[in-house]
């Protein structure tokens, strides 16, 4: 006769096998299981430990027990890059990308394309209330005098305070508030490059980064990137040894589209190497606050002792894309960035700056971020689980450690662009893989947005994509 803990373990195991409990789902707490099953706490813990030993669940510090995602076959290494010499490439993706992005905003399309969080996951009502309060209490913010400074000091204080969560605090004097992270990246590029220069980027790299390079007449130097540990510092060292590179534009924390996380040791090594070679690092940390682990990872900026790293971030992925508010911690390039900001757009809306400052100061902010991180992790796991079930055998997936995008590699050389054509006709939006490469690599890949709560419509869209992918011809 099975012991009590074995019976509970078998009951939970059956729920996992029948997908009543899905990968990523949190199990009831130990005390709740003990109460509901009329068992001792020690018996419940023994049952959970058995399931953990069997690889069916995992414990997460201060969070409880979760159903594990089945082991994935790792993504292919970036062999297409590593087997040949790396050369700068002229970027030409913007015209096509505009059409692909537009599909995601059509109401009849399933929005698996643009990497945006769903409205219902954002604190829109609280922000609207703050707009009313700030406009009433500080009418002077709408006057000309409010634009004499690029930054509202109330916001600067909050940005510095929040930076204490991830290493040495940012220096107030190096901050420039911007109209989004995109503007922050553009200002930094203008501050440290000239048309015709070469900029090192990850491969695959976020298509908007490539569009910025194209718009400014810059060339992309694609550096191989590991799907778990991020950009290869060894490859970057070789690529910059003899060739002039004006800057690096990188994402160390949860890159888009891979969701990978660079180890701290490599971040420090990268910061030291580029400082020695006097190559500025423009760091995009827009996903840094959407970590799945207990602690927010440090950006490269935290390991910079020479002011060589220009850290860019915004609230678009965590609070609201419509705020259009970001910032740069520009290090030794602060004066150059300020000039570019003044010439290109002037001061960022002071009302929005104060609204954001007051929300960041509230206890509601951290509660919201905790909830959002949990939702995004759950949605990524749910999407991963269904892709594994429904896409053709041999499909490989990224294993994001933060953010809310999923990178899918189709097997047998199947064409992601052909899949995109079929999906568009069926009312499903996503971004094909070659949009993440200046060289047109990754045609057998696609990126899926997991920023929306799970619905039957999304479920059916992913199943449809799987059937379409299975029907594609394979490479001969």
Q: What does this molecule look like?
A:
The chain is of the alpha/beta class and 476 residues long. The chain has three domains: 17-67, Orthogonal Bundle (Arc Repressor Mutant, subunit A), CATH 1.10.10.10; 89-96 and 122-362, Aspartate Aminotransferase, domain 2; 366-471, Aspartate Aminotransferase, domain 1 (Alpha-Beta Complex), CATH 3.90.1150. 41% of the residues lie in helices and 14% in strands. It has 16 helices and 17 strands. Helix 1 crosses helix 3 (41-53), helix 14 (363-390) packs parallel to helix 16 (456-471) and helix 15 (416-425) packs across helix 16. The longest helix has 28 residues, at 363-390. The radius of gyration is 23 Å and the shape is globular. Mean pLDDT is 91; it is low at 79-84.
What are the main properties of this structure?
single chain; 476 residues; alpha/beta; Arc Repressor Mutant, subunit A; Aspartate Aminotransferase, domain 2; Aspartate Aminotransferase, domain 1; nine-stranded mixed β-sheet; four-stranded antiparallel β-sheet; 17 strands; 41% helix; PyrdxlP-dep_Trfase; DNA-binding; pyridoxal phosphate binding
Blueprint (SSEs and pairs):
Layout: H1 4-17, H2 30-37, H3 41-53, E1 57-60, E2 64-67, H4 79-82, E3 89-90, H5 94-104, E4 110-111, H6 124-137, H7 153-163, E5 175-178, H8 181-192, E6 198-203, H9 207-215, E7 219-226, E8 230-231, H10 233-239, E9 247-250, H11 264-276, E10 281-284, E11 309-314, E12 326-329, H12 334-344, H13 350-361, H14 363-390, E13 396-397, E14 405-409, H15 416-425, E15 428-429, E16 431-432, E17 445-449, H16 456-471
Parallel strand pairs: 4-15, 6-7, 6-9, 9-10, 10-11
Antiparallel strand pairs: 1-2, 3-7, 5-12, 7-8, 11-12, 13-14, 14-17, 16-17
């Amino acid at each position: 006769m099975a012991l009590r803990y074995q019976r509970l373990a078998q009951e939970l195991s059956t729920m996992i096998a029948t997908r009543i409990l899905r990968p990523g789902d949190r199990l009831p707490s130990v005390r709740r299981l003990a109460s509901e099953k009329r068992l001792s706490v020690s018996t419940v813990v023994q049952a959970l430990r058995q399931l953990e030993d069997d690889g069916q669940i995992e414990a997460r510090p201060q969070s409880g027990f979760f159903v594990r995602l089945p082991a994935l076959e790792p993504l292919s290494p970036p062999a297409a890059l590593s087997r040949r010499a790396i050369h700068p490439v002229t970027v030409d993706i913007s015209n096509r990308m505009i059409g692909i992005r537009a599909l995601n905003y059509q109401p009849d399309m399933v929005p698996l394309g643009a990497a945006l969080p769903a409205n219902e996951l954002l604190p829109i009502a609280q922000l609207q209330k703050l707009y009313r309060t700030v406009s009433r209490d500080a009418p002077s913010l709408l006057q000309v005098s409010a634009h004499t400074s690029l930054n509202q000091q109330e916001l600067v204080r909050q940005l510095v305070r929040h930076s204490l969560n991830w290493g040495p605090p940012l220096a107030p004097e190096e901050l420039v508030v911007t109209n989004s992270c995109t503007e922050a990246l553009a200002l930094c590029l203008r501050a440290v490059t000239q048309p015709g220069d070469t900029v090192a980027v990850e491969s695959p790299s976020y298509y908007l980064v490539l569009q910025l390079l194209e718009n400014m007449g810059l060339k992309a130097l694609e550096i191989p990137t590991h799907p778990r540990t991020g950009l290869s510092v060894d490859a970057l060292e070789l690529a910059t040894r003899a060739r002039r590179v004006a800057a690096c534009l990188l994402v160390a924390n949860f890159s888009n589209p891979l969701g990978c996380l660079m180890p701290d040791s490599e971040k420090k090594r990268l910061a030291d190497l580029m400082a020695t070679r006097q190559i500025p690092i423009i760091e995009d940390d827009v996903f840094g606050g959407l970590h799945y682990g207990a602690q927010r990872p440090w950006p490269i900026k935290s390991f910079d002792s020479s002011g060589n790293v220009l850290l860019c971030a915004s609230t678009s992925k965590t609070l609201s894309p419509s705020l259009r508010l970001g910032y740069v911690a520009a290090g030794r390039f602060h004066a150059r960035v300020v000039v570019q900001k003044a010439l290109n757009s002037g001061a960022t809306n002071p009302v929005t700056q104060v609204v954001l400052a007051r929300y960041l100061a509230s206890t509601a902010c951290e509660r919201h971020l905790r909830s959002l991180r949990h939702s995004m992790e759950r949605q990524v796991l749910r999407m991963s689980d269904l892709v594994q079930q429904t896409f053709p055998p041999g499909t490989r997936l990224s294993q994001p450690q933060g953010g809310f995008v999923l990178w899918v590699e189709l097997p047998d050389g199947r064409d992601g662009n052909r899949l995109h054509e079929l999906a568009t006709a069926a009312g499903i939006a996503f971004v094909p893989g070659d949009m993440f490469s200046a060289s047109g690599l990754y045609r057998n890949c696609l990126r899926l947005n997991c920023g929306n709560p799970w619905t039957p419509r999304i479920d059916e869209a992913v199943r449809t994509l799987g059937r379409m992918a299975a029907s594609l011809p394979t490479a001969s």
